[in-house]
Design brief:
This protein has 175 residues and is of the alpha/beta class. The chain contains 3 helices and 10 strands; from the N terminus they run ββαβαβββαββββ. The chain is globular. The model has no long low-confidence stretch (mean pLDDT 90).
Length: 175
């Protein structure tokens, strides 16, 4: 697949993604029996993952979204910008953050610290992809779809300069 000036090769198929997402939802459903969590999807990248995950959630819950920006091209800018804020009151609520990918961990670390100021009962992170080799800010990732190498990926919501999100599978940069 070509996106702008880069070539990507198949990495995770739609079938593999769907199967793992159902497994994550099953675990969350077990862990949150008797609770009413609020899911917070991190835009733009998590929109496909959040939608498919939430379709498989059976516990009473709500979902909201926030937009955080930290990438330009294929690298992190090192700066986290909140482009769209969260309007819900999180006091005493169980929060599950839905992220497309955790690589350096900077975005999640800063966002979780901000959320703690609202006194939620708990905060857990559910990420589709995690790059352990790239992690610079340790996080407790409760739900991880796939651990992947420190390679740039697109598709299934993940982008390269805004392009390449509209695929049912994930592609890896062909280097």
């Amino acid at each position: 697949m070509n996106v702008l000036d880069k070539t990507f090769r198949p990495f995770l198929s739609a079938e593999v993604l769907n199967e793992r997402i159902k497994e994550l939802a099953t675990q969350i459903n077990k862990d949150y029996i008797g609770k009413n969590p609020i899911f917070i999807g991190i835009l733009n990248g998590s929109f496909m993952f959040a939608s498919d995950l939430y379709k498989n959630i059976t516990v009473p819950s709500t979902i909201s979204f926030i937009k955080l920006v930290s990438y330009k091209g294929t690298t992190s800018t090192g700066t986290v910008i909140t482009a769209i804020g969260l309007e819900e009151d999180l006091t005493d609520k169980d929060v599950i953050l839905i992220e497309d990918i955790v690589d350096t961990g900077k975005t999640m670390k800063e966002f979780v610290a901000t959320l703690h100021k609202q006194s939620p009962a708990s905060i857990q992170i559910c990420t589709l992809l995690h790059k352990p080799e790239a992690l610079q800010h340790p996080l407790d990732l409760k739900y991880v779809g796939f651990e992947i190498p420190n390679k740039f990926v697109v598709g299934y919501g993940l982008d390269y300069d805004g392009f390449g999100r509209n695929s049912q599978e994930i592609f890896q940069l062909d280097e």
